[in-house]
Design a protein that fits this description.
About 35% of the residues lie in helices and about 20% in strands. By secondary structure, it is α/β, with parallel strands linked by helices. Helix 6 packs across helix 7, helix 7 crosses helix 8 and helix 9 packs across helix 11.
Length: about 400
């Protein structure tokens, strides 16, 4: 078996987008996520779901926002997750679509486990104009039953350089024991030689309301045992605010000042979690025009908070922001995979790593929904643009630069 560059674990989900899904607005506000039970799935038949899929209203979410991008960039990528059993060559409609999308884009799906009773994870997204994020209703389904012991065997078999778990807070079994099971799995992956990254999510349906109140979000308590163990953790501004209100104290961030929120979060992470694993760590907060980072060296020392402004945000019209953070992480971990020794010895070029994420995110969110991965170049071409130092303000100019390599 060929060694994998990256293995993405859990949260295989089919994202369905339609103006028909206005019901999600009752569950989640703009940019919010409602975590729903399988029994609450809207009563669409398998044939009805296949209709949305056939009409171009479906895309692979979770690992599907990330794995195909990395595969198109020329990296060896595997996904390990549960998919639901059904009548479409052994899978349900959502699982068949997810599996076929990923394999068609060069992703190794040999670590798929077919769940006997739970359907494939499904997300209903209300399609709204102008590229904004509508309400998201997420049904974890088979992702809720992620068994670390089963997938440890797959990690050993595929021996990835990077082990990437999606998402803390969105799997009942994966989040068991207050997040300690996931933290233990991360430590185990490190012992197998993996660089580790875990992603969180907007774990509530009304983030802006909760931030204004300075309220805690109990699901973010799962990060308490995890953050000291991770090699890489990036989050959004809203998530950073809610994490800090949960883990530091309620009311410490009401969201009035974005800069203060970001620096306050990264200072909190530095003081509470950084430097305890004995390895370099990279923490960050993504924003629309770049990312703020905190880098921890092999001795546990940290520099200041650094902002890396994207040189590509003006180069293209945004089609859909869902998956923006995931695609940023794809570019980032693609760079880390290529430079794993530098990461581990504390000499990583953080600015280049972040610009790789910025560029990948721009290419993804400006792609049409029926060809989400078509703009993704090989990693060497992407890195050549990252290293040319230019600011790109036109899509055609950026594409020309990528195609010149």
């Amino acid at each position: 078996m060929m060694k994998m560059d990256i293995m993405i674990l859990n949260t295989s989900v089919l994202d369905l987008r339609s103006a028909d899904f206005a019901f999600t607005g009752k569950l989640a506000g703009a940019g919010g996520l409602a975590l729903c039970e399988t029994a609450e799935m809207p009563p669409y038949s398998q044939t009805g779901l296949m209709g949305y899929i056939a009409n171009g209203k479906a895309s692979a979410g979770g690992g599907g926002n990330t794995a195909p991008l990395l595969a198109h960039a020329g990296l060896r990528v595997a996904v390990g997750s549960n998919l639901g059993r059904g009548t479409y060559n052994g899978l349900d409609a959502q699982g068949r679509a997810f599996y076929d999308i990923l394999t068609a884009n060069g992703v190794d799906m040999s670590a798929t486990v077919i769940h006997p009773t739970l359907p494939t994870g499904t997300t209903f997204i209300h399609e709204v104009p102008h590229g904004e994020r509508g309400g998201i209703a997420y049904f974890p389904n088979a992702n809720d039953d992620f068994d670390f012991e089963v997938f440890k065997k797959e990690v050993l078999r595929l021996s990835p350089t990077v082990a990437y778990y999606m998402y803390s807070g969105l799997s009942k079994r994966g989040d068991a024991n207050g997040g300690r099971d996931l933290a233990d799995f991360v430590v185990w992956c490190r012992k197998q030689g993996c660089i580790t990254i875990v992603d969180s999510h907007t774990l509530c349906g009304n983030p802006h309301e909760l931030i204004a109140k300075g309220a805690a979000v109990p699901a973010y308590k799962l990060l308490e045992p995890l953050l000291p163990e991770l090699d890489i953790f990036f989050t959004s501004v809203d998530e950073a605010r809610m994490i800090r209100n949960t883990l530091e104290r309620e009311g410490c961030d009401h969201g009035e000042d974005t800069q203060a929120s970001i620096r306050g979060f990264l200072d909190f992470v530095r003081n509470r979690f950084a430097g305890k694993s004995g390895r370099p760590q990279l923490f960050g907060v993504t924003v629309k025009n770049g990312a703020y980072t905190l880098y921890v060296d092999t001795q546990g020392n940290t520099g200041g908070v650094t902002f890396c402004e994207s040189r590509y945000t003006a180069a293209g019209r945004v089609v859909d922001l869902v998956g923006a953070g995931d695609s940023f992480r794809a570019g980032l971990i693609g760079y880390v995979t290529r430079n794993c020794d530098a990461f581990l010895d504390g000499s990583l070029n953080v600015a280049e790593a972040v610009q790789s994420g910025n560029l990948m995110a721009t290419l993804y969110v400006t792609s049409p929904l029926d060809n989400r991965y078509g703009n993704i170049p090989k990693l060497d071409a992407l890195l050549s643009v990252v290293r040319d130092g230019k600011n790109y303000t036109a899509e055609a100019e950026l594409k020309t630069a990528l195609n010149t390599f």
